[in-house]
Amino acid sequence: MSFRDIMGQETAKQMLQSGLRQQSTSHAYLFSGPSGSGQRQMATALAQAIYCTRQEDDACGECLECRKVEHGNHPDLHYIEPEGASLKIDQIRELQKIFNYRSENNNRKIYIIDQADKMTTQAANSLLKFLEEPQVPAVGILITSNKGAMLPTILSRTQEVPFKALSPERIEEVFVKEGYSPALVRTAAFLTSGLESCKSLLDQNWFAEIRNVMLQLGGESLTRGSMSLVSAQQKLFKTGLSEHLELMFDMFHLWFKDMLYVTYGKQENVIFIDQLSSISTIARSRSTEQWVSYMDLAAECRKKLRSNMNGQLCVEQFLIGLAS
A Pfam family in this protein (predicted)? Predict the structure, then answer.
């Protein structure tokens, strides 16, 4: 994995490559930004560049050290991610145990902690001691999409490397070229923040299914009222698609925005491009104020889901709200 392979994130690349050239790589980094915006790819690229024996500020991809990283079997590179809902103290202790031993080739040991904001308090305190007093030369890379959930003492001991969401247009360009459905790509690009997260969504069979269900429920709610409640029961709650309700509400939010785009003559901005004809018809059935209120309703229902409201009740309230 080379820095050249990562789209965007020029600020992050410049920071890291400058440190490599000046031989001033930090002992600990915090890669912070939207989930799926390339942090894990960048962490691997940095590790490969550090170990590369041929290039100063990037990975050649050909030397033995580079190939070990590429194949996931470099003995001095360690990945940690949550076990279940959190990163636990035993995981940090195991890392410390591994780092008690020097590497055979005098390499720096590198550890990458994904979703570092999900550390338990005990794990975070244990990591803090490790950050301050590593037993061997080490580089830590902590990845987070929620910097505010991390201990201030950990933040103060790491060098932050900021990541930004890629523009949907750039994401769209990449995956359409790879042969994915343009309609699905456009929707996924506006629901995610980077290439990794977009590809992950596109590769799920249920993504196309729930998109179709959302369009059906939206059309029925606005034209046939209570029929949408029957469809929701059959298409969502008897099929397993109900596991993805938050994403469905995000789709509804985009769909309602499309109604506004058409109303204001901005068809080129429509996200559900394959639905332009039906959107043009439906958009005339409500006022702009109503479409904005529906966007608010979708956001509110998503918030209720996150607060553990019953999913079926939440969907029913939403569909009734659209029909009234």
Answer: DNA_pol3_delta2
177-185 contacts at long range (C-beta below 8 A, 24 or more positions apart) = 181/208, 182/273, 183/272, 183/273, 183/274, 184/208, 184/211
* Domain termination site, one of 140, 162, 184: 162
Per residue in 91-141, pLDDT (tens digit) is: 999 988 888 777 767 788 899 999 999 999 999 998 987 787 766 688 999
Query: Do 208 and 156 reside in the same domain of the chain?
Result: no
> Per the structure block, which two tokens stand in for 107?
């390499």
Please, are residues 230 and 189 in contact by the beta-carbon 8 Å criterion?
no
Q: Are residues 114 and 245 in the same domain?
A: no
Contact call for residues 86 and 118 (beta carbons, < 8 A)? yes
Whether 47 and 139 map to the same domain: the answer is yes
Strand-pair partners of 79: 112
| Domain of 317, in residue numbers | 204-323
269-313 pLDDT, tens per residue?
999 999 999 999 999 999 999 999 999 999 999 999 988 889 899
pTM: 0.71
* Domain total in the chain: 2
Strand partners, 28: 140
What pLDDT does residue 143 have?
A: 96
pLDDT at 225: 64
The answer to whether the CB of 321 falls within 8 A of the CB of 231 is no
